[in-house]
Amino acid sequence: MKLNQFTLTIFTLSIAIITGQQVAKAASLSVIADGLxxxxxxxxxxxxxxxxxxxxxxxxxxxxxxxxxxxxxxxPLCAGANGSVIKIGADGKKETFLDSLTSIALVPSGEQAAxxxxxxxxxxxxxxxxTGVAGDPTKRDTVLKSPDLGKLFKVDxxxxxxTPLADFAGYEAQYNPDGTDLVSNPYALAIKDDNAFVVDxxxxxxxxxxxxxxxxxxxxxxxxxxxxxxxxxxxTLPEGIVDPTGGAPLPPGYTQxxxxxxxxxxxxxxxxxxxxxxxxxxxxYSYFPYPEGAARIWSIDENLTTTGFGVGNSPESGKEIANGxxxxxGVAYDPEGSLYALQHINTSEWKEIQQGGVITxxxxxxxFKIAKDGTRSTIWSGQGLExxxxxxxxxxxxxxxxxxxxxxxxxQVIKIDPRDSRKVPEPTSAIGxxxxxxxxxxxxKRKRRSQEELGEELLAKVEIx
Length: 465
Fold this sequence. Notes:
mainly beta; 6 helices; five-stranded antiparallel beta sheet; globular; single chain
């Protein structure tokens, strides 16, 4: 640790002591797997082994199996056979459980891959694999030639055979439940009894799927996220640009922002977990420009019949149980019933990471705890937690997540013990801002691009639209 970092850390700790804040032994962040390509969601097996999905790093595009990314300035997403599921034994031994699974990712960085997305076990010990798409589902079978994407499979743990149970990409292509642009990206699942519940961050939907092989039983779209955005919440556009769309019509489900940019009002659900009361808790990421403090957490019953929940409703519809977050990518409950939420990056994504995987700022994330009485505290922020996705509690009482989950070659599986963590002040307080500043010292050294450069890239995207 260099002197300036050490000084700022001690200064922050001193203020906390002076103000009378109780400080317990600081939690440690442990890396239990490293060097992964786009690691995502995970689950513990009955024997204590941890199964982790990695979405891979895609292909080089030489075979033409590429589609434009709808969320990354239309950079090509190209297919390859390097998605996997890794198994980490209770003794720490690592092995590849499934390999050569289809992956699509941005070229040439391998960033923001879709492929193996989640792995879960039911109460009987049966295993299930979820795969994503992150693009136009009508191109999956034809252009990508990857019919295994965008589906839920039952996994034979002995033979490793995959039996398809549901085709979410096909359903999106045929029915488009949220009525906006055609995109599918199944991202996470939870299981209750004999049904799986899957959130699709591309289709902005939640599916109920029978695990007996009878297929999709129900689907609902998430309410749109209407936020009044100001121009300072966007990258600065190049000087002289009046109509960044070039007069093009808005895509379905988009509105015109204050600076003329087309903005999606989509929810983008990313995480789902079974709540202690038997309902499901769902986190959302939100849409470009990923407004800070706009992401919500939802409660949904197993029949997907929450009052007002469905297409075209206002943000007040459905049962919102928490808000004020930025880009959530996971939720989990501890044995006492407290809710934990994972914040992917603490500020709007476009400010910190260039589409294509070049880190230009601070990609630190946070983990928040929401107690049963609604009290909210920050369990961990920065200090090695970066652009993480997926959150679960292990049988050892530790939190597990996939770190640097959108990057190829540098992804990790990490664990944090919340029982020993010091309570980090909320960033709305002066002390909280100092604490978060200390956590981001290292990342702040990375070179930032100017807002005008970001605007030029964004303009390239909207011109294609």
